[in-house]
Design goal:
mainly beta, 33 strands, five-stranded mixed β-sheet, globular, single chain
C-alpha cells in the first residue's frame, strides 16, 4: 500500500483522510492535484471523479479569478443552490439546496460544525472570502455521516493553509458605496510543519436594505427608513500543524470575525455580531491499514441587537463538537470507516427559553468498495438526541463506469432535522410540540469526462415529512405533513482555445403536499430555475473574466400570493499582473444595473465597481 504524504497533510485538521484504497484510481492519479481531492462527501479522501455523490469544489485559483467579495457572492447560481439575501453586504443570507429549507444545509468550517442553535442558520455573510482556501459543496442527504441538519447537503469551508517558503501577502481595495477593504497575511509550510496567519477588514456604507412600509399597512421590515445601511467586518484566521515522525499529525485552527451591520426595523435596526470557530485534531497512523483521528471544536455565534444605538437584546449560542474516527483498509478494494460523534448546543440570551441546551451522541459506520468497474457505498448512523430521542439514518450508493469516461450513479438516503430553539421556545412564536423533520431521497446521475472536460447530470426526488413551516391559523411554526422536492442539475467545465469555461443549470420543483389550503403551492424563496456561467482567459499579463448568474421567479409566502420575478446579472472583471508578486484587479458587478429582490421588500445592490491591489504569490 503506497502512502501519499502530501495528501495526508492536505487533510490534516479536517476529517480523517484515508490512504488510497482503490488501486489505480483517482487518489493515486491526483497526488499532484490536491484541489481535486475532497473529504466532505465521505469523511475520507476521495477525488471528485471517484466520489459517488454530486460534489463541486471551488478551489483557491477559482476564488482568486472570480474576485468575489463575499461567500454568498461566490456561491450564487451554482448547481443545486438558491440564495436569499436581505439587503446586501453583511445582511442575513440564507442558502437553499435542492429545494430544502435554509436550515437543512449543514455548514462546516475546517471540519467544525457551525451555525446558530437558536435560528438554525449558518452566518454565510460572516465568513470572509479573503480567508478561504477552498469550498466543498456536497448535494444530497448526509445525515448518515453528520446527523441532524444535513438534509439537503453539506457545505464545508476550508481556511487558508500555507505550503512552501515563507510568503507574506497583502491587499487593499476601494469600491462603490464607499467600500474599503484591506488585509494582510503570512505563512509557510513543508512536510513536517505549517502555519499561517491572516487578517481581513471591510467596511461599506451599503444600500437602503429594505423598502418596508410602516403603519397602518406593515410590510417588509414594518418601517420606512430610507437610508444607507452600513456593514463592517474584522476577521482573523490562524492555523498551524506539525507531523511527528511517520505516525502522528497534529493540527489546530481558529477563525474569529467581529462585525457590525445596520438594517431597517422598528424593533431593532443594528446588530453587533461575533463568529468564532476553534478546532484541533490529532491523527495517528496505527498500522499499515488503520488510521485514527480525534477532532474537537467549538463554534460561538453571538449577536447584540440594538435600536438606534440602544441595546434591546442579545443572543449567543455555543456549539461544541467532538469525533473519533477510524479508517480501516480491509483490502485494496474495501475501506471501512467507523466512528462516534458528540455534540452539545447551549443558548445564552436575555430572552427566556424554556430549554437552553441539548446533547447528541452518535455512532456511524460506512463501507466503500470497488469491484471491477463498480463502486458501492453503504452508511448507517444511530443518533441519540437528548430532546428528541433516537434516530437512524442511512445512505446507499452505486456507481458503474460502463465505458471509457462514462459513469452512472444511483443512490438512496434518509435524513432528519431537529427543530431549532427559536422554533420550539421563542416567546409568543415557538411551538414546543414540534416534531423533527424527516426525509427520504433518491438520485440518479450520469457523468462524462475527457481530459479537462467534465459534464454531469443529476436528477433527484426528496420527500420531507413533518416539514416545519409557519402556520397562519396558529400564528406559530408547525409541522407541514409533507413536502416533495424534485429536480435536476447540470454542470460542465472545460478549457477551450485558452478559455476556462464552467457553467451549471438547476431546475427545482419544491411543493407543499400537506393536503390543506396550500397543497400544491411552491415552497417560499426557492427559485424554480437557476444558472451560472463563468468565462476566464489570460492574455499575457492580462486576465479577463465574466460571470453571469440568474434565477427564475419565486414566491415569498406559502400562499403564493407574493411573487418575486426572475433576474440575471452580469459581472465583468479584469486583472493585470504588474510583476510576479503584484496584481491589479478591477470588477464591475451587476454591470447592467438590474433591479431585483431575493426576499420580498429587501433590496439588492445595483451596479458596483471595485478596484484592488494585491501583493503575494498567485493563489
Amino acid at each position: 500500500m503506497h502512502r501519499i504524504t502530501a495528501l495526508s497533510l492536505a487533510c490534516a485538521g479536517t476529517f480523517a483522510c484515508a490512504p488510497p484504497v482503490f488501486a489505480g484510481t483517482g487518489v493515486q492519479q491526483a497526488a499532484g492535484a490536491l484541489d481535486r481531492v475532497v473529504v466532505t462527501a465521505t469523511r475520507t479522501a476521495r477525488t471528485v471523479d471517484d466520489t459517488l455523490a454530486p460534489v463541486e469544489v471551488i478551489d483557491a485559483a477559482q476564488i482568486e479569478r472570480s474576485q468575489a467579495r463575499s461567500l454568498p457572492d461566490l456561491l450564487r447560481g451554482r448547481a443545486g443552490l438558491s440564495i436569499s439575501n436581505q439587503g446586501g453586504a453583511g445582511k442575513l443570507t440564507t442558502v437553499f439546496m435542492r429545494g430544502t429549507e435554509s436550515d437543512h444545509v449543514l455548514v462546516l468550517v475546517d471540519g467544525v460544525r457551525v451555525g446558530s442553535a437558536t435560528s438554525g442558520l449558518a452566518a454565510f455573510q460572516d465568513l470572509p472570502v479573503d480567508l478561504i482556501e477552498r469550498v466543498e459543496i456536497v448535494r444530497g442527504p448526509r445525515s448518515s455521516l453528520y446527523g441532524s441538519d444535513a438534509v439537503g447537503g453539506v457545505i464545508q469551508v476550508f481556511t487558508r493553509r500555507d505550503r512552501g517558503a515563507l510568503s507574506p501577502r497583502a491587499h487593499v481595495g476601494i469600491g462603490s458605496n464607499d467600500t474599503r477593504e484591506a488585509g494582510v497575511g503570512i505563512g509557510a509550510g513543508d512536510a513536517k510543519r505549517w502555519w499561517s496567519a491572516d487578517y481581513a477588514w471591510r467596511r461599506t456604507d451599503g444600500i437602503d436594505a429594505c423598502r418596508g412600509i410602516g403603519a397602518p399597512v406593515f410590510a417588509g421590515c414594518f418601517t420606512t427608513e430610507p437610508d444607507r445601511d452600513n456593514h463592517e467586518s474584522n476577521a482573523v484566521s490562524l492555523r498551524g500543524g506539525v507531523a511527528v515522525g511517520d505516525d502522528w499529525t497534529f493540527d489546530a485552527h481558529a477563525l474569529a470575525n467581529k462585525g457590525s451591520s445596520e438594517f431597517d426595523g422598528s424593533f431593532t435596526n443594528q446588530a453587533e455580531t461575533k463568529q468564532r470557530v476553534f478546532g484541533a485534531s490529532a491523527k495517528w497512523n496505527a498500522g499499515e491499514r488503520i488510521d485514527l483521528t480525534l477532532q474537537a471544536g467549538r463554534n460561538t455565534d453571538a449577536s447584540d441587537n440594538l435600536l438606534d444605538g440602544r441595546k434591546v437584546g442579545d443572543f449567543s449560542t455555543d456549539r461544541d463538537s467532538a469525533s473519533l474516527q477510524a479508517d480501516v483498509t480491509l483490502t485494496d478494494a474495501h475501506l471501512l470507516t467507523v466512528g462516534a460523534d458528540w455534540l452539545r448546543d447551549r443558548v445564552a440570551s436575555d430572552t427566556r427559553y424554556d430549554a437552553t441546551g441539548r446533547r447528541t451522541h452518535a455512532a456511524f459506520a460506512q463501507l466503500q468498495s470497488r469491484v471491477g468497474r463498480h463502486d458501492g457505498l453503504l452508511a448507517l448512523r444511530h443518533e441519540d438526541n437528548s430532546q428528541f430521542g433516537d434516530h437512524v439514518t442511512g445512505n446507499a450508493a452505486w456507481g458503474w463506469s460502463f465505458a471509457p469516461g462514462w459513469r452512472v450513479t444511483a443512490s438512496v438516503g434518509t435524513a432528519f432535522k431537529a427543530p431549532t430553539f427559536n422554533e420550539l421556545y421563542f416567546p409568543f412564536f415557538g411551538n414546543p410540540a414540534l416534531d423533527p423533520e424527516r426525509s427520504r431521497s433518491t438520485e440518479l446521475g450520469l457523468a462524462w469526462q475527457r481530459g479537462s472536460t467534465r459534464v454531469r447530470l443529476d436528477a433527484f426526488d426528496t420527500r420531507v415529512d413533518d416539514l416545519i413551516a409557519f402556520n397562519a391559523a396558529l400564528f406559530l411554526p408547525d409541522n407541514v405533513q409533507r413536502a416533495r422536492l424534485r429536480g435536476a442539475e447540470f454542470s460542465a467545465s472545460t478549457q477551450w482555445s485558452g478559455w476556462d469555461l464552467a457553467g451549471s443549470l438547476t431546475a427545482v420543483d419544491a411543493r407543499n403536499r400537506d393536503g390543506g389550503a396550500n397543497d400544491g403551492n411552491t415552497l417560499p424563496r426557492r427559485a424554480r430555475h437557476a444558472a451560472r456561467l463563468d468565462l476566464d482567459r489570460a492574455f499575457g499579463a492580462w486576465r479577463l473574466g465574466l460571470t453571469t448568474a440568474g434565477e427564475g421567479n419565486r414566491y415569498d409566502d406559502f400562499a403564493n400570493t407574493r411573487r418575486l420575478g426572475g433576474f440575471a446579472t452580469v459581472d465583468l472583471r479584469v486583472e493585470y499582473t504588474l510583476n510576479p508578486d503584484w496584481r491589479l484587479q478591477a470588477r464591475l458587478a451587476n454591470a447592467f444595473d438590474r433591479e431585483y429582490e431575493t426576499a420580498a421588500f429587501y433590496s439588492q445592490p445595483g451596479r458596483e465597481g471595485f478596484l484592488a491591489l494585491r501583493y503575494g504569490p498567485a493563489r
